[in-house]
Design a protein that fits this description.
By secondary structure, this protein is α+β, with helices and mostly antiparallel strands. It has eleven helices and 23 strands. The chain is globular. The structure holds S-adenosyl-L-homocysteine.
Length: 469
Amino acid sequence: MTVYIVNAYDIMTRTILPVKLHEQMTVTVDDIRIDGMGIVNITPTYPVYIADAIPGEKIILEVTQVDKFSGYAKVIEYLETSDKRQNSQRQYLIDAGTAPLVNLKYEAQLELKRAQINRLFQAQKLNVAVDTTIGMENPTYYRNKTIVPVKWQDGHLTSGFYRRGSHELVPMTDYFVNDQAIDQAIVKVRDILEKYQITAFDPDSQQGAIRYIMIRRGYYSKELMVVLVSNDEIIAHEDAIVADICVQLPELKSLIFNFSPKKDFVLLSPNNRTLWGEKTIHDTLLGYNFIIGPNSFYQVNPKMTEILYDLAAKKAKLKATDIVIDAYSGIGTIGITVANRVKKVLGVEVVPGAVADAQLNMRANHVENAEYILADAPEQFKKWQDAQLKPDVVFVDPPRRGLTSELISATVNMAPDRIVYISCNPVTLARDAAEIIQQGYDIDGAVLPVDQFPQTSHVESITVFKRKH
Ligand code: SAH
């Protein structure tokens, strides 16, 4: 009998991976991952991911990272390019990761999003139709909010983005997806802070004041909010800075100082001080007024949000006698825009500030038949179920992790005729859809993707479920 002594070193060296670091090879790109990375299947079980590589393209790649089950590579040369490619002249957005699909023609971006939903539903063995993604007429400069880091570099206060995995701030002034007035405001505010030699937070030393400049701008109202997010509690030359910003930004409605020490907060803290003007700005959505504070969640693509909510309400086939639940309600946008078509709206949301905003927004729009409850949605659904609530329509607009089984069972037990699922993550949507269908619902019509985030890999969609009778 032969005894093999295998040690860990042997196992490692014997695991033969199909690629080697720095190896170059000529390949054809097989597929595209939803984040925009091209996929080359080196073997059926070993993919390599490549930025800016489109299916069908023939490229020479160089392997840059070898992991156990997959690798990464970069393009050395394009031998044949796809007719879906466009030269955006904006390679920096791919490096930054802020607009990873920018080199893909917009129609191809829309089709990628449709196909992704389709594939995920098929994987759940659900045979559903997915409509063509509704896109923007002009899929650029659409965001109503941005937050950018600043850093002193080479004697200048620089705004831009951190190169992935580094502390190097790459300057950027044209973000391509922000309202252009926002991009201009960032530069103006940054230059004023530079003029007064305000320190900026440095990720290496963990010292310095300003971490981010955040800007929000009302799409219809044009009202501008500037938030200085600071690691220090006070800002030097405050009065002079405020005066300069007011002169430079005539649209300014609200100037806020957000004290957000790095060790406690990822981005903004709840700690706001109004330096000038109002605490909030306003904007309208489908003709309704909404109050937007520095910490409020507000959809970033106003034009497409109107299309999304309008279609969701139409697909819900609302009736004047309906009791409607608006779950994961944020500041009440969905419920408030449908309230005048139904009997009653019940909203549930877990962030206290958002619920407070929803209540203000109700009043601002003279909505009297809505109620916004501060609670965890699955827990509140259980309470509603126990109280024998019988809603007709349930809207759900959950975060990326989707619904819980508890929420789905409580919904099914309350037996609404229609469930309207607005999803920002098709992975959890398809998973939840399987569960909802299994518990006695059918998908009514087709799943409808609406492109809220052109140039990026995010996929938003509406699915309506109808109760089987
Ligand atoms: N419908 C709103 C918000 C959608 S975003 C709009 O379109 O503006 C998802 C919302 O779900 C966020 O406001 C988030 O705070 C909320 N949320 C997250 N987890 C929750 C939970 N467990 N219970 C209730 N709300 C939750």
